[in-house]
Amino acid sequence: MSKNIVVKKNNSGTIAQNKRARHDYFIEEKFEAGLSLQGWEVKSLRAGRMTITESYILFKNNEAFLFGAQIQPLLSASTHVVPEATRTRKLLLSRREIEKLMGAVNQKGYSCVPLACYWKGHLVKLEIALVKGKQLHDKRATEKDRDWQRDKARIFHK
Fold it and tell me: Which of 37, 48, 54, 139 is the most buried (most CB within 10 A)?
């Protein structure tokens, strides 16, 4: 009578990463934020259907919101809910963290972007960071340093 349902499990807790942010920005400070989600979104996250490459964080009325993150709904999503893939999602942070982030963004010229989304137990967490933009010559210098580190490791391991 019972059906065997096979669910693809992700070995690591990572749901989505923003590798482009690490290339485009200098990461100054990282924070961990909770994410306010609906039921169908959690089911889609378990299937790994999230992208955060084009997303960013804005502050309004002493609250933090995630814009541009896409969670693709599953085909088996419930029929009484109309899923919106790119809706604005509220971030769950302490008051002190929000004030610190808002101060850095408004006064010091930093930006706030998500770096990764992952599972922490049964909760969904978002790693966000205060960042400064890189110029083209900074990106080239980072690439040269990365190549040199790779070559150095290759030489020492022979």
Answer: 37
Distance CA 95, CA 63 (A): 9
> Contact at 8 Å (CB) between 42 and 15?
no
Question: Is the overall model pTM greater than 0.85, yes or no?
Answer: no
Alpha-carbon distance of 146 to 152, in angstroms, equals: 10
CATH of domain 14-156: 2.40.280.10
φ, ψ dihedrals at 120, nearest 5°: -130, 95
Residue 158's CB: how many other CB atoms inside 10 A?
4
Q: Residue 54: CB partners within 8 Å, gap ≥ 6?
A: 68, 70
Residue in this structure with the two tokens 């150095």, named with its chain if needed: 152
The domain ranges of the chain are 14-156
DSSP 1-69: -------PPPSSSEEEE-HHHHHHEEEEEEEEEEE---HHHHHHHHTT-EE-TT-EEEEETTEEEEES-
pLDDT in tens, 61-117: 999 999 988 888 887 766 667 777 788 899 999 999 999 988 888 888 888 999 999
